[in-house]
Amino acid sequence: MIVSFSVSNFRSFSSEETLSLVASKRLSGSHDDHAVPIPDSKEKVLRTAVLYGANGAGKSNLFKALRYVKSVVLNRYGTGREPFRLAGPADAPSSFDLQFIAADKLYRFGFKVDDDRITEEWLFQVVGNRQKILYERTTDENGKVAVDAEGLKSAGEKVMALATVGGPQSQSFLATVNATLNPGDLGEELSRVLTWFQEGLNIVSPGESIGPDPLDQDPDFLSFAGAFLKSASTGVDHLEILKQEVPTDDPWRSIPDTMRRANGYDRMVRLRMADNRDLLVEGKVGGSVYEISIQAAHEHEPGKVVGLNLAEESDGTRRLLNLVSALHRLRTRGAVYAIDEIDRSLHPILVREFFEFFLKSRDCGTGQIIVTTHESNLLDQDLLRRDEIWFAEKDQTGATRLYSLLDFKVRNDLEIRKHYLQGRFGAVPFLGNLDNLLAKTDRPE
Asked: Which of 68, 271, 314, 349 has its CA 20 to 30 A from that of 165?
């Protein structure tokens, strides 16, 4: 789970801005089940946050900053940073600082980066008010990398040897470790951190697929997804899996040569094709090829069911199935889903239903969902706490500022949706005088 994330000098962020998901003690007694304990701390972390703002306010840039951090941790070689360009010195470093819970431990990872190198990097384990240094890395103006990894001695000789070498100036120490060492050589702390970034942190851009997980391989997900779609009044009664052999004299023609060579096929192999078809290939020369498709069953009359390919369903139904994939994963393992524009193609009632299910589900207790949205129906104190509602707004310099509804004096019975749309909390578009534009376009020549 993410506890806090700070970013500066990246895209629309100039000075440091922080999204904090630490539950406010001022709201004790309000939706207490929306927060879970932070390890080795008296504080709690929120299970969800929603971020509002006008178009162009920088909401998506916060998630792009998260995605950038993940790439720097796992595989990025070369900084490829995108600094704030409207003001300030062009060579000022960008800074990122992320606190997160992985395997019941609280960690803090961060770095500073310019166009050429990662100038600073750090990883701490946080225990109460103390920070145990796992490693600190610096890079001087000549590109020499120095890593102080005294806190990783228990990881073994290979990690310490790599720390002595330092690694490339434009690659994080974590990425160097991840690319160089085998999983068994990482040690407990680095293994926890890298696994969280690989599997626990999921950033979903608008239009990007979360999954879905292969429905034919998980009967529980197939049943759960079908039941959710039915309860959401999509017209889908249930989901079915259709497996059909590809009708051709040479099934292997369906498989590109590069994919065939890469997989080897000594077993049954599943392939996702460029046209989004799923194929199952038997692991022997001349073996059969099967196409797997998801069928949405519609009961148009009692006892009469018609199956439609999922591609024939509405954008909203397919989008909902995509989101249900996240709910299913959160039922079986803790993870973070940062979903940009969650309301895309969805009816407002379905967006709210999605959040209500997540927040009521005990199985999703260690999962976390952070979203950007324009859907104002979520602005309801019966649904969310005030510290779960955030806003993004640009200041006079064009820089994004983040702030919470907790910063305002709000009564518990206030209809915050109405007041937000009226502009009380900011983070809404303030339009110019469009009548003048109409007058110009309507003027006869």
From this structure: 68
Q: Which two tokens stand for residue 112?
A: 């500073």
CA atoms of 50 and 378, how far apart (whole Å): 8
Half-sphere exposure (CA, 13 Å, Cβ side) for 405? 28
Q: How many CB atoms lie within 10 A of CB 213?
A: 15
3-state secondary structure of 329: helix
| DSSP run (H or E) holding 174 | helix 173-180
Confidence band (pLDDT; 50, 70, 90) for 262?
A: very low
Q: What is the DSSP string of 32-94?
A: GGGEEEPTTSS-EEESEEEEEE-TTSSHHHHHHHHHHHHHHHHT--S-------SSS-TTPPE
For the chain, the first-to-last Cα distance in angstroms comes to 61
Which of 37-46, 296-305, 409-418 is predicted least confidently?
Answer: 296-305
Q: What is the pTM of this model?
A: 0.88
Considering only 169-173, 261-265, 277-281, which range has the smallest mean pLDDT? 261-265
C-alpha gyration radius of the chain? 25
State the pairing for strand pair 368-372/48-53.
parallel
How many distinct helices (H) and strands (E) make up the chain? 10, 20
Q: Report phi then psi at 215, rounded to 5.
A: -65, -30
Residues 49 and 19: beta-carbon distance below 8 Å: yes
Encoded tokens for 239: 């989901």
